[in-house]
Design a protein that fits this description.
Elements: E1 4-10, E2 13-19, E3 29-34, H1 43-52, H2 54-67, E4 75-78, E5 87-92, H3 101-119, E6 123-126, H4 138-154, E7 163-168, H5 173-184, E8 206-212, H6 222-226
Parallel strand pairs: 2-7, 3-5, 3-6, 6-7
Antiparallel strand pairs: 1-2, 1-8, 4-5
Helix pairs in contact: 3-4, 4-5
Length: 229
């Protein structure tokens, strides 16, 4: 899998977009894109459940038995079972067409981060929630993700959550890349050999850089290639 990464620095906090397997993310907790019944029957949810083992499935069933099905925008957590994480957060994203999809995605990203803060988890990995079988466009997810994270960090001068990784695929990385670029930078400057961009005008000192091998640039969509011209 090609290595592609976009990184933002918020003071000493790090936000990364990268093409990677969420089950290999070097974080305290990972996020499972769940349905309201916490029935992890397909896609990434099934992959996470299979890797975690029976304990995750058992705890998911207990949560539903005690509290009922979860609404879109809600997030809960279970143990990570056999996975090397402190927990798995189950984030229930919206289904396209139910309405207020971006608002609900902002809620589920924010609530996942609040669970981290409450439990003193310092790093978290998200997938592109709701962009699979729930059919929410990737750009809507990306905008919600960016807004939720920046609002969360901007509201806290000190915060347990120091690192966030958005784990993407070859298919959805370009749309996330473009959405984050539009949200983040007014002025962009490529520094040869570093693939860096200059500091944003924001007083928060937000900085981003990209690591993309020179021989991989032609593989990107035209909009991404434009940034390297």
């Amino acid at each position: 899998m090609p290595k592609k990464k976009m990184e933002f620095l918020y003071g000493d906090r790090v936000l990364q977009l990268q093409i990677c397997d969420i089950l290999k993310a070097p974080v305290d907790v990972i996020v499972n894109p769940a349905n309201g019944a916490l029935m992890h029957g397909g896609g990434l949810a099934l992959k996470i459940q299979d890797a975690a083992g029976s304990e995750l499935e058992k705890q998911s069933r207990l949560l539903i038995a005690e509290h009922g099905e979860l609404e879109s925008g809600m997030a809960v957590y279970t143990s990570a079972g056999n996975l090397p994480y402190k927990a798995v957060i189950h984030a229930v994203g919206p289904i396209m067409g139910e309405g207020y999809e971006q608002d609900k995605l902002e809620q589920v990203f924010s609530r996942s981060l609040l669970l981290c803060e409450t439990n003193d988890w310092q790093s978290i990995a998200f997938p592109a929630i709701s962009t699979g079988v729930f059919r929410v466009p990737v750009n809507i997810c990306a905008q919600a993700c960016y807004k939720a994270i920046t609002h969360f960090w901007d509201a806290r001068s000190s915060c347990a959550v120091e690192k966030i990784i958005i784990c993407l695929t070859e298919n959805n990385f370009p749309d996330f890349f473009e959405a984050f670029r539009e949200e983040s930078f007014d002025n962009k400057l490529l520094v040869e050999g570093q693939h860096s961009v200059n500091e944003s005008s924001s007083s928060e000192g937000k900085v981003g850089y990209i690591e993309i091998d020179e021989n991989e640039i032609p593989e990107q969509d035209d909009e991404i290639q434009d940034w390297f011209k």
